[in-house]
Amino acid sequence: MRAVLASQNKKKIAELQAILGELGVEVLSQQEAGVDLEVEETGTTFEENARLKARAVMEATGLPAIADDSGLVVDALNGAPGVYSARYGGPGLDDTGRWQLLLKNMKGRTDRACRFVCVICCAFPDGGELMARGECPGEVAQGAQGAGGFGYDPIFYLPQLGKTMAQLSPQEKNGLSHRGQALREFQKEWEKSPYGIDK
Ligand code: IMP
What is the pLDDT of residues 69-91, one digit of tens each? Predict the structure, then answer.
């Protein structure tokens, strides 16, 4: 099956391609499918935003479209940055600026519990959809470590490994990340569905 990835984030696309490729899905970028859409994320949940992105790209291409909406949920910050993770601190900040702001806002806090959340939605041209969620618990590190991954990975500490997400290889990250879990869950949903993975 061919599906378009409804994302412009190159690192996210690479992670999704690596995992979906293993599932036997031929994935196209939006450019390869001939569209250039930046869908506004107006939803208040990961599910709503994933659906908005997947449906818009499915409608523009006429092909099944897979979107990922993800973010970092921090308990001590009442769930922030959550669905606003990509926009935390406003448009002037890059990934480094956003995690630096998060570390500043966590200064002096002893409850460091957080989790990465990822929702995958695939919208099909017949109006059907499949949705799956993955979560990866961790802690907000005291400082940044590692150069792999993207986004908040350098400050996402995995106590069971004694490393941040940015210190893992891509394979190690996919094995435990919210995105890897959501995609494996998504594969199960897909296999149970009328769409089937190789149709
Ligand atoms: P969106 O799904 O495009 O709204 O963006 C999600 C944002 O959450 C990204 O820009 C990152 O800041 C953050 N995020 C999502 N997944 C990850 C991850 O695997 N590592 C680090 N940060 C992530």
Answer: 999 999 999 999 999 999 999 99
β 26-28/2-5 pair status: parallel
* Contact criterion met (CB below 8 Å) for 128 and 195: yes
CA pair distance 3, 61, nearest whole angstrom: 10
Burial call 136-172: b when 16+ CB within 10 Å, e when fewer: bebbbbeebbbebbebbbbbbbbeeeebbbbbbeeeb
Does ligand 1 come within 6 angstroms of the Cβ of 153? Answer: yes
| CA–CA gap between residue 198 and residue 66 (Å, rounded) | 16
Cis bond upstream, residue 170 (ω within 30): no
Going by CA atoms, what residue is nearest to atom 9 of ligand 1? 86
pTM of the model: 0.93
| Average pLDDT, rounded, for the chain | 93
Ligand 1 centre distance from Cα of residue 85 (Å) = 6
69 is a catalytic site residue: yes
Cα 176 to middle of ligand 1, angstroms: 15
Q: What is the DSSP letter of 81?
A: B
Q: How many other CB atoms are found less than 10 A from the CB of residue 18?
A: 17
Residues 6+ apart with CB under 8 A from 174: 15, 18, 19, 180
Contact indicator for 56, 37 with CB cutoff of 8 Å: yes
69 lines ligand 1 (CB under 6 A): yes
